[in-house]
Prior knowledge:
By secondary structure, the chain is an alpha+beta fold.
Amino acid sequence: MKKLLCAFLCLLMLACVLAGCAKDKADTNPTETATTAPTATPTADEASAEAEAVRIYMDNKEVWEIIQDKNATSWYGYLFLDLDFDGTLELIASTNGGTDTHSNNRFYKLDTENKTVTELNFPDKNQDEQWDFTGGDYPKVYRNNETQQLKYMVYDHIRGGDYSFGMRIGELTLDEQSNVVSKNLWGFKYTMAEASDSGTEENIFEVYDADGTLTNTDEDTYNNTLSTYEQNNTLLELNFRVVEGYASDYTFTELSEAEQQNLLLEGYKAFSYK
């Protein structure tokens, strides 16, 4: 009897030991909590402010689109600049052509809240002598060394005839209060020549004084005016991309809306300055 009782107690003790081990093992491997699959996130372009801005421009395409006959010889295209440096880019629709290299520009501002596009009032929009946005190293962005104000330096290359060439230089700014794109001209440079191969050249220089009066001056004064401006302002690196109306592999108006939107998005995202 005693032997049976001892055996029973031994088995009971063994069962308790095994139960304790099982509990310790369970405690070292807690039950994992269930997780839900991550939700799909939008692509970078869909989530970006750039993509949204271009989408609004496309939704209002009838406001700014240039329609030209495919046989037209004049150049046209689009580019984005932040004229008021508020982070939202304005659209410039530009054409260029004719024997006198005439440019014609329209400026458009985006309202992201109301999702509308409005043409800005440009005082000289019906004149032939406008700023050129079709190539070269212009426009440029300068930062005033004292006030830190940012400004665009713009150029207008003028051809007055077979023997007459010139260049206007000025500042281009956007007045947020009145939505007016204004220019502040400060200089002209002309090269005139007689109408013959052996004609002598004559350079003409003009600058605006503090009162805004255009006066004739000499080359040294003109160059000093430019030099003073460059000393008082720091030239920044400006990047932008012109979306051509006519290219070797496409005509903008003949592209699908998706293709147009992609081109404009590339142009929008290309803008930067530092």
